[in-house]
Design a protein that fits this description.
Elements (H helix, E strand, L loop, with lengths): L2 H17 L16 E4 L2 E8 L10 E5 L22 E8 L10 E4 L2 E2 L2 E5 L2 E6 L6 E4 L11 E8 L23 E2 L3 E5 L4 E10 L4 E10 L4 E3 L2 E6 L5 E6 L3 E3 L3 E10 L14 E6 L4 E6 L4 E3 L7 E3 L2 E2 L2 E6 L1 H4 L12 H13 L4 E4 L7 H9 L2 E5 L15 H5 L15 H15 L5 E5 L7 H10 L9 E2 L12 E5 L38 H6 L13 E6 L15 H7 L6 H22 L4 E8 L12 E3 L4 E2 L1 H10 L3 E5 L5 E2 L4 E10 L5 E11 L2 E12 L4 E9 L5 E10 L6 E9 L10
Parallel strand pairs: 25-26, 25-32, 26-27, 27-28, 28-29, 30-31, 31-32, 36-42
Antiparallel strand pairs: 1-12, 2-3, 2-4, 4-10, 5-9, 5-12, 6-11, 7-8, 7-10, 13-14, 14-19, 15-18, 16-17, 16-20, 20-21, 22-23, 23-24, 33-34, 35-37, 37-40, 38-39, 38-41, 41-42
Helix pairs in contact: 3-4, 6-7, 10-11
């Protein structure tokens, strides 16, 4: 053998051995499928019509991803029930360069409502699920190499076209169900005949990651070799690797291979420090990579207020993002698909001391999870399921509700089975489980359904991270799960047509009512347990609780009440109140009630609704923005609410709002520390009249890590009648002072000397 040939062989060996040591280019996109990726995002043609016959012309264009309100020219009455159309048909062409492969996967990230795919005039597949991807091998339907192909996707025009055997994201407080392909569309073309997806499960205690490879082989049997490399996402340093023994892949079969990788100098992911890693899987020809974070979430049995993040107690302060409601908002535009806008949204929330959110009643594009991974925003990942009405449970006349154009969408679909829910949950989990931000699975919202409980226990073992599940109004499915509470006592509904099914609340809420409520929030289990004979009773205090809905006093973005809250504001402030007056009251009450719940320390998470929702005349709920384009929050929210969610929080735990002169009163101030380090400083209590401080006391405080301290101030009420304000402040050196506010009124009775 000549020296030249030996030299060439040596070069080949060196290149082969070095191939897997080259850092992959994962800077452009945080996750890459296995194979070459061809994006089909962009402008598509679109037409309306029936479900069966493909239109002959496509008169409008629409961006993908997006929803139908973005079509140009626009279609009439999009998202409303009616007889105009039953379907929308998307069309575009594409061409694959080079030799055609045996595996060409089409992935449609998410589409509402129901997806049917045609390639070159031939049906490829149908997927009725609206919150999980459609993935199909279309290689056999493609034209020859370098020849143009036609792709047509039919979606339902409204949730009403879907059969009652699938969930559709229906709810009782939404009007427009705008359809569309609302996540990425791409072709994935591996060099081989197989395709790989992964699951990464952090093991924080042992500083390693468990990796599951799911390999689907589409053609003949073959052998395959894989190397797995873990890189620090920031430094690009290789921090762990392994090679699998040669795997035998059977033709037209699927295989799961599980291995572990030890990490060097492991760095944890938390909302405060969102460190990330990248796993690369490489077979020598193709690679895929997925980003993940080293974090673990566990519950503590027997306590109602504890979960552990990375082995330490952690408290979640957050909001709810009702993206499905925002989709119907007149100001929605294309913002949900604008990465700059979405990142600014999450940073806006974090700037107000929030560290988490519940994604509820809707599903966002997947890049939202990428951004929340990066920004450090924890997610309670709720499947978009809220069916408030069910024949076995409801005292309402369902026949009447079925005749209502909007509320009827909140009735449980009678054809949905446990098996169907398990199928939907499984597909949902597989798309989301590698995201560092996803700490909890949430099966549903305010729904009584044995099917969700049973389905959770079918799919639970799929998640190698074994995250806790929340199951809405249905009791928890497992002993290590959590429960959610929705304590709405800040309301008044006399005369409100939107509250027909509820018992009248005859007195408007005020802060003086706060101490009348129990500090452990309840979950509405009993109707389920009696209705479905689920005995013995499963009491709510057996599980850690997240209070993820409270504070009922929503305002539209223009400062007017929503349909649910108009009676309250009219009764308390008068029908002629200004937007500023309403916003001030809402922010003060939201802040005070948040402080009270945090001071009670009975919930491991407190998440108010809504960080993002919708706003229009007739809406039921809303958010606190006044300008969606600029993501500007109203000034009263910014003044009061961020302090209520401060990691080091202060609460004037005093709620009596009317006093006579010369009363001797004791005012407790509770300091709550969500930080994993102790705090020493001062707490100041002031009494203010007409912006002038007329009384002030200062006390030293020492709060343990993740602990609390209550400080008692004694004072006498002043001799001058008027409206006063108590303000408690924590003096934090070098940081913004955190405040709590209460209003008190002094009556003009017996005057006497009042001493400071």
């Amino acid at each position: 053998m000549s020296k030249n040939i030996l030299f060439l062989i040596l070069i080949v060996i060196i290149l082969t051995n070095c191939r897997n040591e080259i850092t992959p280019d994962f800077t452009q996109k945080p996750n890459k499928p296995f194979g070459k990726v061809v994006s089909l995002n962009g402008e598509w043609q679109i037409a309306e019509g029936g479900m069966e016959i493909m239109p002959s012309t496509f008169p409008s264009v629409i961006p993908v991803p997006g929803l139908l309100h973005l079509a140009k020219p626009e279609f009439k009455e999009v998202g409303l029930p009616g007889n105009i159309r039953n379907a929308f048909w998307y069309k575009r062409t594409f061409q694959i360069e080079g030799k055609l492969k045996k595996v060409v996967l089409l992935k449609i990230g998410k589409a509402m409502y129901g997806t049917k795919v045609f390639v070159n005039g031939k049906e490829a597949c149908e997927n009725l699920m609206s919150f999980s991807p459609t993935v199909i091998n279309i290689a056999q339907l493609l034209n020859d190499d370098n020849v143009e192909n036609e792709l047509v996707v039919r979606i339902g025009a409204h949730i009403s076209v879907l059969p009652n055997t699938v969930t559709a994201g229906g709810e009782a407080e939404k009007i427009r169900y705008i359809p569309g392909i609302y996540d990425d569309v791409e072709l994935i073309i591996p060099e081989s005949t197989y395709y790989i997806t992964t699951q990464v499960a952090p093991d924080v205690e042992n500083e390693l990651v468990k990796v599951a490879l799911y390999i689907k082989n589409y053609e003949e049997s073959r052998n395959a070799d894989f190397s797995l490399n873990v890189y620090d996402s920031k430094t690009k340093e290789l921090v762990g690797s392994t090679k699998l023994k040669t795997l035998r892949l059977i033709g037209n079969d699927e295989k799961t291979e599980i291995t572990s990788i030890k990490l060097k100098n492991m760095r944890l992911w938390t909302p405060e420090v969102p460190n990330l890693y990248v796993l690369e899987v490489n077979d020598g020809n193709d690679n895929c990579f997925t980003r993940f974070g080293m974090r673990q979430i566990k519950t503590v049995n027997g306590e109602t207020n504890r979960v552990l993040l990375n082995g330490s107690p952690y408290f979640f302060r957050g909001n709810n993002i009702a993206i499905g409601r925002f989709y119907e908002d007149p100001e929605c535009k294309s913002y949900p698909w604008d990465t700059v806008w979405v990142r600014k949204l999450i940073r806006t929330f974090k700037s107000t001391n929030l560290n988490s959110t519940r994604l509820c009643v809707g599903s966002p594009p997947m890049f939202w999870y990428d951004i929340m991974d990066e920004e450090g925003f924890a997610v309670f990942d709720e499947y978009p399921l809220w069916y408030a009405y069910r024949s076995e449970m409801s005292k309402d006349n369902l026949a009447d509700i079925r005749n209502e154009p909007f509320r009827k969408n909140g009735i449980w679909p009678e054809g949905v089975t446990t098996e169907q829910m398990a199928k939907e949950y499984s597909a949902f989990m597989k798309e989301h489980w590698n995201h560092a931000c996803v700490l909890f699975w949430d099966a549903q919202n305010e729904t009584w359904a044995p099917e969700t409980k049973e389905a959770i226990n079918i799919v639970r073992s799929l998640d190698l991270s074994n995250r806790p599940w929340d199951n809405g109004w249905t009791p928890p499915a497992g002993k290590n799960d959590i429960r959610e509470a929705h304590d709405y006592w800040e309301s008044y509904n006399v005369g409100n047509e939107g509250m027909k099914s509820r018992k009248d609340i005859i007195k408007p809420f005020s802060l003086a009512d706060v101490p009348n409520h129990k500090k452990i929030p309840s979950t509405f289990y009993l109707p389920y347990q009696f209705g479905f004979k689920d005995l013995p009773l499963n009491w709510y205090w057996d599980y850690p609780v997240v209070l993820n809905e409270y504070s009922y006093l929503w305002l539209r973005r223009d400062g007017n009440p929503t349909q649910l809250t108009k009676p309250f504001y009219d009764a308390v402030l008068g029908a002629d109140a200004t937007p500023a007056q309403r916003r001030n009251l809402y922010a003060r009450y939201l802040a005070a009630v948040t402080e009270w719940w945090r001071a009670s320390r009975t919930c491991f998470g407190i998440l108010y609704p809504f960080g993002l929702a919708h706003s229009f005349p007739g809406c039921y709920t809303s958010d606190n923005f006044i300008d969606i384009d600029k993501l500007q929050l109203d000034e009263y929210y910014l003044k009061y609410v961020p302090d209520a969610f401060s990691p080091l929080g202060v609460c004037i735990d005093y709620w009596k709002d009317k006093h006579e002169k010369d009363e001797k009163i004791e005012i407790p101030v509770v300091i709550t520390n969500d930080i994993d380090s102790s705090f020493t400083g001062n707490c100041v209590l002031k009494l203010i009249l007409n912006d002038e401080t007329i009384w002030e006391r200062k006390k030293v405080l020492e709060v343990n890590a993740l602990g609390q301290q209550s400080i008692l101030f004694k004072m006498e009420t002043p001799p001058v009648a008027g409206k006063y304000q108590l303000i408690a402040e924590i003096e934090v050196k070098g940081k913004k002072i955190v405040k709590s506010y209460r209003d008190i009124v002094i009556t003009n009775e017996q005057m006497s000397v009042w001493s400071l």
